[in-house]
């Protein structure tokens, strides 16, 4: 899902892109927050053949996963005790923890 990749790479896109492309990023953010389709905008920003880059497999000491706070994308982040809490850059909220079991 492109929204998942967009959310994952949003901090990088905000740092790397300038001017007109940065405007496209923020337009896509606002559209996503409003629940509007963003695939066309995101495809334009990320390019063809985008692969999900930030889904980490479970590691020792993990008893659950962090998911999108709104349930709109499939981003999954596993962390260990002491790691920083993962944040959704799109909605500017902490990811939602779901315990195993």
What keywords describe this structure?
single chain; 101 residues; alpha+beta; 2 domains; two-stranded antiparallel ribbon
Can you tell me about this structure?
With 101 residues, the chain is an alpha+beta fold. The protein has 2 domains: 2-46, no CATH class; 64-99, no CATH class. Helices cover 38% and strands 14% of the residues. It is built from 3 helices and 5 strands; from the N terminus they run H-H-H-E-E-E-E-E. A hairpin with an 8-residue loop joins strand 1 (64-67) and strand 2. The model is unreliable at 51-59 (pLDDT under 50).
Element-level helix/strand string: HHHEEEEE
Number of domains: 2
Largest sheet properties? 3 strands, antiparallel
User: What sort of overall outline do the alpha carbons produce when their principal axes are compared?
Assistant: elongated
Q: Give the N-terminus to C-terminus distance in angstroms.
A: 26 Å
The gyration radius over C-alpha positions equals: 14 Å
Number of helices: 3
Question: What ranges have pLDDT less than 50 throughout 5 or more consecutive residues?
Answer: 51-59
Sheet-strand content, in percent, reads 5-15%
What's the count of strands? 5
Helix content: 25-40%
User: Which strand order do you get reading across the main beta sheet?
Assistant: 2-1-5
User: What do the pLDDT scores average to?
Assistant: 81
